[in-house]
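Private note to self, pasted from the team thread so I don't lose it. Backbone tokens:
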């Protein structure tokens, strides 16, 4: 056979019993979920900032980053809601490269999925306990989210997954905001169809059981730019893109229309410093048009302790990305304060 079993993994219930949420963290999660939900339903005019490393590659560095973010959040919490990106599994276009802590809790060692699921749950719990913030992750593998579904306050479905039926149906059973990215082609209709599917209830197979979902009224879109047939990046954060999206949203009659603008990826052509300019342009568009002010609920930014990126090696720089390049902490503080002033 072309596939072999390496190890039986614990069920999500078993893992949650081994690493449970304390009463304190349960209350924290409920409060954060309510605060974030109110932004997406329009009850709150705060602005969402999903911000953090491209991939969580080192528990100590990630927790230091999130703790800094917590102190920053205290200063801007009247205007912004900061949600740390703690992304524990990474899609790889060709299947090559670092796939995240779920696969490799130690980036320079062989994959170990059992150690990975333990490591990512411990890291998320530690970050919550130390910072008082709940985080976002990407739902790369729908069945794996059950290991973290009691911890996360936001999930994103990536450009390569957004057309997948299992991702859409799983999103329909979530009770937190889920962002559906436009596909790599940049097609808005595919992205919006995913939101339609996620906002409806479904019956399907999940983790070997027959389940029924109620639909997720907090499902929304994320603009991350696209790539044409020649491999050229086509950004979609400009004013005309946002107004076009608004018109397409209205035609679908979806609940809680909302968009998060991803300032990196194909919007920046992975020129990480461009994120600063892109965020400023998005804030200007939001300020210029009252309808866009209502539609644009936040931005997504890739940021870490040290700017840039590095390859996996023996003497890696602590707090620098090993996947896509990120802005550093000084730029992070600068752009967060600027957003708080402009909201």
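Design output:
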């Amino acid at each position: 056979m072309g596939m072999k079993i390496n190890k039986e993994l614990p069920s999500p219930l078993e893992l949650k019993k081994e690493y449970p949420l304390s009463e304190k963290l349960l209350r924290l999660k409920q409060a954060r979920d309510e605060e974030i939900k109110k932004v997406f339903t329009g009850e709150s005019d705060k602005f969402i900032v999903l911000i953090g490393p491209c991939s969580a590659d080192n528990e100590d560095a990630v927790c230091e980053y999130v703790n800094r973010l917590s102190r920053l959040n205290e200063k801007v919490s009247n205007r912004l809601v900061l949600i740390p990106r703690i992304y524990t599994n990474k899609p790889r276009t060709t299947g090559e490269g670092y796939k995240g802590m779920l696969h490799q809790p130690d980036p320079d060692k062989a994959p170990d999925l059992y150690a990975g699921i333990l490591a990512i749950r411990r890291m998320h719990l530690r970050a919550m306990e130390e910072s008082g913030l709940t985080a976002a992750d990407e739902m790369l593998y729908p069945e794996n989210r059950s290991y973290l579904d009691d911890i996360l306050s936001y999930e994103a479905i990536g450009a390569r997954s957004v057309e997948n039926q299992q991702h859409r149906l799983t999103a329909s059973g979530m009770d937190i905001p889920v962002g559906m990215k436009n596909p790599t082609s940049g097609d808005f209709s595919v992205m919006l169809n995913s939101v339609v599917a996620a906002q409806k209830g479904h019956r399907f197979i999940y983790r070997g059981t027959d389940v029924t979902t109620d639909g997720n009224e907090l499902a929304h879109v994320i603009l991350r730019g696209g790539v044409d047939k020649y491999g050229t990046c086509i950004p979609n954060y400009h004013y005309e893109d946002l107004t076009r999206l608004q018109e397409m949203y209205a035609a679908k009659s979806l609940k809680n229309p909302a968009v998060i603008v991803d300032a990196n990826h194909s919007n920046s052509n992975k020129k990480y410093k461009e994120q600063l300019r892109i965020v400023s342009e998005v804030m200007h568009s939001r300020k210029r048009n009252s309808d866009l002010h209502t539609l644009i609920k936040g931005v997504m930014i890739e940021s870490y302790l040290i700017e840039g990126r590095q390859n996996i090696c023996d003497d890696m720089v602590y707090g620098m990305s090993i996947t896509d390049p990120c802005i550093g902490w000084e730029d992070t503080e600068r752009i967060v304060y600027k957003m708080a002033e402009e909201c």
